Amino acid sequence: AEIEKDSNLMHIIHVTAEMAPIAKVGGLGDVVTGLARACLSRGHTVDIMLPFYECIQKEEINDLALITTYNSYHDGNWVPTNAYRGVVSGIPVVFIEPSNQFFKGQNVYGGSYNELEAYLFFSRACLEWMQVTGVQADIIHVHEWQTGVIPLLYWDMYQNLSLKKPRIVLTIHNMEHYGECRQEQLSKCGLDGSLYASVDKAVDDRTIGHNPERLSLLKGGIVYSNAVVTVSPTYLKETLCSGWLSSTLINYRDKYFGILNGIDTVMWNPATDVFLPAKFHAQKPEGKKICKYYVQRGLGLMSEGTLAVNHVADIKHDVPLIVCITRLVAQKGLHLITHAIKHTEELGGQLIVLGKASDGRVQKEFEDLVNLHNKGSSIRILLMYSEELSHMLYAAADMVLVPSIYEPCGLAQMIGMRYGAVPVVRKTGGLADTVFDLDDSSNHEKANGFVFEGIDEGSLNWALDRAFAYYRDKPEEWNSIVRKVMEVDNSWNNTAGKYLEIYNSVRVGW
Ligand code: ADP
User: Fold this and answer.
1) Ligand 1 center from residue 229 Cα (angstroms)
2) Model's pTM, two decimal places?
3) Of 74, 214, 225, 439, whose CB neighbour count within 10 A is largest?
4) Atom of ligand 1 nearest to the CA of 174
5) Residue among 501, 507, 496, 504 at smallest CA distance from 3
6) How far is CA 422 from CA 82, 168, 349, 449, in A?
7) Are 305 and 315 in contact (CB under 8 A)?
């Protein structure tokens, strides 16, 4: 459908550590790309500023060109820095490349340089680039602790230079990472760190008692931004009730908003997805069966009998296939994922986990599970990051499992739904805002999945058992649920307008 252009056009610059698909680790990358595209298609001017990580595949960038060579301050020196322009997935990007060791390595995170210092450098280098080039956007949209120092630098330094027009919006994607920073580390970006060591600036009141040395870049970002957004209404409530920065957020309640993330429906579209062996959509769902068949076959999840069948149409799709696609960290409910593996096997279903662990102990634990389960015809645990496989798996899945302990928004359940996978989720954060239980009579219209509340194995069993029973006993109804979840509109078109309202409310007319 043609998207109507807005009348009140703005220039928005996102400053971010991640962008899908070239530098994506989790949801942050998806959100930046999806929101940027939605604003672009409404007629706004949007740029994304990203570190030029060494691991970025240059073939994925169109029209890459060096545009500015300048110096940016770090720790007493001016570091020669290059800015490149390019287009990624239709979105203009400015890449910042310092001449030191920052952002070198095989991955977006975890290089051998000091990450905190690298993002402090990057944050200042983005403002310095705006200062040098005279680019004055209406909105600088910063994300997470990595760019949380930008509002401080902007109001206390660059406003005294020549940047006057921009206003700053901060999105908090996950409260767990609050950018712990010592005063002298903060000083490396050119601010006097000691000036920020108070509760009204960058120290959380929970830490000041025992460690006034510890600043939080996220806290500073909250205090100094014109508006602060987090990624779902329920997570907003949760962050106000408990957690590190809750009292700060309560103090700034008037400028704190909860906006549900959308998904990028260009990148995530089963009707056009180049990674799929067969395309499908709600009105024409048959291709999904072929995707399931390909995945089962490709991963050796077929019984002898099924392998002998010549036509996909002849296969009985009576084994429910669940996928769980996630970073393997505590937040995601590791013990529940482990339990789901066991329980799915007991129930005679199939479960594929696609996950990457960053912690050695977790990696080891899941390697053991690989050895225990991957030989059978029920479970596959794939310990890697693969964008391509993730598309295939969402398309193949009957159900998508998201058993998070907490989940600010969660994209897996939304992507899964768009690909016809019925969500089985724990009721927390954005999961509670997007998935409504089919057995909850008060929610009939919205009902689209299976929800459990506890963090114990019994709670998960209860949801999985019901999902399996539904799948097996009520095939007709199941098919209509699949159609229904594919038609749920979790696109950015739906929610980008809320961000634009906030941009509009803080920007200054020029
Ligand atoms: P988070 O931001 O906490 O990682 P989200 O659910 O918001 O969680 O976003 C996760 C995104 O990362 C989704 O697009 C999901 O498909 C993707 N993802 C997570 N793990 C992997 C993996 N191992 N391989 C491919 N994609 C992954």
Assistant:
1) 20
2) 0.93
3) 225
4) 3
5) 496
6) 46, 38, 15, 6
7) no
One DSSP character per residue, 351-394 reads EEEEEE--SHHHHHHHHHHHHHHTTSSSEEEE-S--HHHHHHHH
Q: Is 134 left (phi over 0), alpha (psi -120 to 50) or beta?
A: left
425-440 pLDDT per residue, tens? 999 999 999 999 999 9
Please choose from 230, 326, 383, 405 the residue to mutate so as to test ligand 1's pocket, defined by most ligand atoms within 8 A of CB: 326
Residues of 495-506 as b/e, b for ≥16 C-beta within 10 angstroms?
A: bbeebbebbeeb
Residue 231, both tokens: 């990624």
Does 26 sit in the ligand 1 pocket, CB within 6 Å?
Answer: yes
pLDDT in tens, 378-395: 999 999 999 999 999 999
Q: Which of 30, 143, 325 to mutate to test the pocket of ligand 1 (most atoms within 8 A of CB)?
A: 325
**Closest listed residue to residue 137, CA positions, set 15, 258, 236:** 15
From residue 47, how far is each of 167, 260, 263 by CA, in Å? 15, 22, 19
Ligand 1 pocket member 368 (CB < 6 A): no
How far away, in angstroms, is 465 Cα from ligand 1 center? 25
- Ligand 1 center–CA 328 separation, angstroms: 10
DSSP secondary structure string, 8-60? S--EEEEE-S-BTTTB-SSHHHHHHHHHHHHHHHTT-EEEEEEE--TTS-GGG
Q: How far apart are CA 71 and CA 302, in angstroms?
A: 59
- 377 C-alpha vs ligand 1 centroid, how far in Å? 25
3-state class of 83 per DSSP?
strand
Q: Region 110-115: what's the mean pLDDT? A: 96
Determine the Cα–Cα distance for residues 46 and 476; give it in Å rounded to an integer. Answer: 45
State in Å, rounded, how far the first CA of the chain is from the last one.
33
pLDDT in tens, 212-248: 678 999 999 999 999 999 999 999 999 999 988 999 9
Cis omega (within 30 of 0) on the bond before 408?
no
10 Å Cβ neighbour count for 399?
26
Ligand 1 pocket residue status of 416, Cβ below 6 Å: no
Distance 60 CA to ligand 1 centre (A): 20
Neighbours of 101 (CB within 10 A): 13
- Contact 296/50 with Cβ under 8 angstroms? no
Could you tell me the distance, in angstroms and rounded to a whole number, from the CA of residue 393 to the centre of ligand 1?
13
Ligand 1, residue 382: give the atom nearest the CA.
23
d(CA 207, CA 225): 21
Does the C-beta of 392 come closer than 6 Å to ligand 1? Answer: no
CA 50, CA 48: separation in Å to the nearest integer?
6
Question: Is the Cβ atom of 123 under 6 angstroms away from ligand 1?
Answer: no
